[in-house]
């Protein structure tokens, strides 16, 4: 059992052949080149297994999984306007979900405080029976569902800082209070969901938290939402596991969106999330989502790992200076479910 932080990977990520497409194998190569040059930043590398089909079926109906398998075996093609598969994509998708599930096992084993599951295709747009937005299976949702069903957890928190709304994760956990899903994303932008008024439904009302930001949102905006909304939500919810849908397309160099984050912003968000997780004595696992500017992606993942590998003292109550007005709007809205935020 590794005691260092863990990096989960599988070579099948390189055989999900989408070129020409921004979600391309070179994303993984760029990240691994950067990390390799830096000694993997002390992370122990683990090869991901394919996901157990029963575990996958807990989120995705077997008929849908088989339809993806058939599409790939038949040589691939476009599943929707921007989601393409090749012969190798099914195997890649099984390992992308399997990596996230293996990560949960390692994190809950007690010896691994933090981990990063870095595969393609990404997952947070995938609905139970519909591929979309470059995503086939919702890797983080499969992992969270596994943590609840197979590992007996009662509360899992998912923070999604990909610049696009994680509509798949949002909808999969819309009706449950077992998963607190918090997404910071640019609006307007694909896929057009994730308005602030979408707070979940039924027993899950208040357990879906959407924090849309305007184009141009920078480190200060994202970090103030993390420090003043995400962190206090975590303290109130008291999750037993923290998962992050770690997309890097909010970076200022990214071609697919118009936010202005830097590597420092990703590092700061990671420190805050690691900090509150340490104070709750729970592990943190990141799952790679988007990020299409190769150099920015590689450097931002490295910045995340640097922040992820060190224990962080519990964050002090942050000062009110420089707080985005989005914070007070969000806290006012969330106060009805989360009194500590009112
Ligand atoms: Zn994205």
Strand tally, please? 10
What small molecules does this complex bind? zinc ion
| Uncertain residue ranges | none
Number of helices: 10
Structural class: alpha/beta
- Note the gap between the termini: 43 Å
Element pattern in H and E = EHEHHEEHEHEHEEHEHEHH
Strand order of the largest sheet: 2-1-5-10-9-6-7-8
Describe what is shown at a glance:
By secondary structure, this protein is an alpha/beta fold. It contains 10 helices and 10 strands.
Properties at a glance:
globular; binds zinc ion; alpha/beta; 8-stranded parallel β-sheet; 342 residues; 38% helix
What this model shows, in words?
With 342 residues, the chain is α/β, with parallel strands linked by helices. Helix content is 38%, strand content 14%. The protein has an eight-stranded parallel beta sheet with strand order 2-1-5-10-9-6-7-8, sandwiched between helices. It has a two-stranded antiparallel sheet with strand order 3-4. The longest helix is centred in the first third of the chain and has 20 residues, at 89-108. It binds zinc ion. Zinc ion binds at residues 162-164, 247, 249, 289-290.
């Amino acid at each position: 059992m590794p005691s260092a932080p863990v990096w989960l990977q599988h070579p099948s990520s390189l055989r999900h052949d989408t070129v020409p497409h921004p979600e391309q194998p070179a994303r993984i190569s760029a990240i691994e080149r950067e990390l390799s040059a830096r000694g993997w930043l002390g992370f122990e590398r683990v090869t991901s297994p394919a996901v157990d089909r029963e575990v996958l079926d807990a989120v995705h109906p077997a008929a849908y999984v088989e339809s993806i398998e058939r599409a790939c075996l038949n040589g691939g093609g476009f599943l929707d306007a921007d989601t393409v598969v090749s012969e190798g994509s099914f195997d890649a998708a099984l390992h992308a979900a399997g990596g996230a599930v293996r990560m949960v096992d390692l994190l809950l084993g007690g010896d691994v405080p933090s981990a990063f599951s870095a595969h393609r295709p990404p997952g947070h747009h995938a609905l139970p029976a519909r591929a979309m937005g470059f995503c086939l299976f919702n890797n983080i949702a499969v992992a969270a569902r596994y943590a609840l069903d197979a590992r007996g957890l009662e509360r899992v928190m998912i923070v999604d800082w990909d610049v696009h709304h994680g509509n798949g994760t949002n909808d999969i956990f819309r009706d449950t209070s077992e998963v607190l899903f918090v997404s910071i994303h640019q609006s307007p932008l694909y896929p057009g969901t994730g308005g602030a008024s979408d707070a979940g439904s039924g027993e899950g009302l208040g357990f879906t938290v959407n924090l849309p930001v305007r184009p141009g949102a920078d480190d200060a905006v994202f970090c103030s939402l993390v420090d003043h909304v995400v962190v206090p939500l975590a303290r109130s919810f008291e999750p037993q596991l923290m998962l992050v849908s770690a997309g890097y397309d909010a970076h200022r160099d990214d071609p697919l969106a118009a936010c202005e984050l830097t590597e420092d912003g990703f590092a700061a968000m990671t420190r805050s999330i690691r900090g509150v997780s340490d104070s709750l004595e729970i592990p943190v696992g990141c799952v790679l989502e988007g990020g299409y500017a190769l150099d920015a992606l590689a450097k931002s993942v490295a910045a995340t790992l640097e922040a992820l590998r060190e224990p962080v003292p519990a964050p002090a109550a942050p000062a009110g200076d420089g707080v985005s007005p989005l914070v007070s709007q969000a806290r006012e809205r969330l106060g009805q479910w989360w009194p500590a935020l009112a």
